[in-house]
Amino acid sequence: MASDYLNDVLCVDGVALPEVAENFGTPAFVYSAQTIAANWCAYDDAFGDRAHQISYAVKANSNLAVLGQLAALGSGFDVVSGGELQRLLAIGCDPGRVVFSGVGKSIQELELAVSCGVGSINLESREEALRLSEVAAAHGVRPEVSIRVNPDVDPKTHPYISTGLKENKFGLPIDEARALYLELQQSEILRPTGVACHIGSQLLDASPVRDAVEILVELVAELRAAGIAITRVDAGGGLGIAYGDEAPPSIGDYVAGLCEKIPADLAIEIEPGRSIVGKAGLLITRVEYVKKSEQKTFFIVDAAMSELLRPTLYNATHKVMAVRQARRGAEHFVGDVVGPVCESGDWLARNVSLAVNSGALLAICDVGAYGFVMSSNYNSRPRPPEILLDNGAARLIRSRESHGNLLLDELELFKTHQ
Ligand code: LLP
């Protein structure tokens, strides 16, 4: 997102953040429509005339306005739950452009997938293939499927977001995948037309993905020789972004690497999430107190781990910027940015140098992916609003939850038992 100080005030895409805070309150997630479009188009352009589908990973940011914007650009989608699929159906997205991934799809989720006609279902086990066969037979449909191969390559990322090693729960080892394809060749219900993998997230080096894709391409050759008509390879998502001084490959180089490895007679599918929306979002939060002790300074803000879980869950670093630039010569203090939640793990940034007082606004950067979607109501905190900056205007795309909302699912039940 294009953020810059104008007269010492942080502006994003030409919109001054204090104004956004004034209009919508804090904490608040703010997204840049321009950045989302630019990243999606960078993927699309990089494929040139290669047959491809960009299946945006809905889990990264599932706000309806974001999904609608991507659908309008021509995006496909990768979903991992019935709930994510319902979001796409709610905005009138073509289910034919949806890939359904995930290791534990329920019967109800598979029923929804086959009844609305998703483009492909990525199978992660033989048991799932059997379950899907039954569900599809009952609905009288013949869905296209890919098998998610676990290629056993090390993506060199945080262990919680590494998925392509044999000790991970995801996908099938190559031998089991091959055997399942041969079994599905006899199926009168499932149509195996793709091969898929996803080895991990926040990858800063593209070579493990290229290695994984090489393994998939070899498998495709074997399957084709056996008479199974595979038409597409799904390389998953995973391209990382720079939260600090990391230097991930560019979208263009990343796609070029895939195109080089995948023969031209196979369509290429990818499932990027973070690299499309991650840098398009920030979290505005207000300093409640600056608590200085001999040991330490704490900037206690009104956002918390309930809004942004990544720092405490993955030890992730998100840059923090003062929304109003400090006066020249102002005294800076080094401290931790923490929230009001009753956990010592409730921190958003550590050892940052700031010259701010109570009432000041801070922007926590690069939270467009896995920010709001991982938020919770812990400590009975209503989740913050989401705001989209588009064409110089700030538009509310999700309202702030209210305390009343949070009681809805319980209060009537409580009263009926009094
Ligand atoms: N496809 C599949 C099957 C996935 O499991 C994922 C992410 C993606 C695509 C999208 O990956 P991306 O392009 O966004 O890296 N909460 C963690 C990230 C978890 C990623 C889970 N799977 C975080 O905040 O870093």
Describe the structure.
This protein is of the alpha/beta class and 418 residues long. Helix content is 31%, strand content 25%. It has helices spanning 17-24, 33-47, 64-73, 82-90, 107-116, 126-139, 174-184, 207-225, 251-261, 274-277, 310-314, 403-416; strands spanning 3-6, 9-12, 15-16, 28-32, 52-57, 76-79, 98-100, 120-123, 144-150, 172-173, 191-196, 232-234, 267-270, 281-292, 297-301, 320-322, 333-338, 347-354, 361-365, 386-390, 393-398. The strands form three sheets. Strands 4, 14, 15, 16, 17, 18, 19, 20 and 21 form a nine-stranded mixed beta sheet that branches. An eight-stranded parallel barrel has the order 5-6-7-8-9-11-12-13, surrounded by five helices. Helix 2 runs parallel beside helix 3 (64-73) and helix 2 (33-47) packs parallel to helix 9 (251-261). It binds ligand LLP. Ligand LLP is lined by residues 57, 60, 78, 101, 161, 198, 201-202, 236-239, 271-275, 310, 314, 369-370.
How would you concisely characterize the structure shown here?
The chain is an alpha/beta fold and 418 residues long. Helix content is 31%, strand content 25%.
Write the layout of secondary structure elements.
Layout: E1 3-6, E2 9-12, E3 15-16, H1 17-24, E4 28-32, H2 33-47, E5 52-57, H3 64-73, E6 76-79, H4 82-90, E7 98-100, H5 107-116, E8 120-123, H6 126-139, E9 144-150, E10 172-173, H7 174-184, E11 191-196, H8 207-225, E12 232-234, H9 251-261, E13 267-270, H10 274-277, E14 281-292, E15 297-301, H11 310-314, E16 320-322, E17 333-338, E18 347-354, E19 361-365, E20 386-390, E21 393-398, H12 403-416
Parallel strand pairs: 4-20, 5-6, 5-13, 6-7, 7-8, 8-9, 9-10, 9-11, 11-12, 12-13, 15-17
Antiparallel strand pairs: 1-2, 2-3, 4-14, 14-15, 14-19, 16-19, 17-18, 20-21
Ligand LLP binds at residues 57, 60, 78, 101, 161, 198, 201-202, 236-239, 271-275, 310, 314, 369-370.
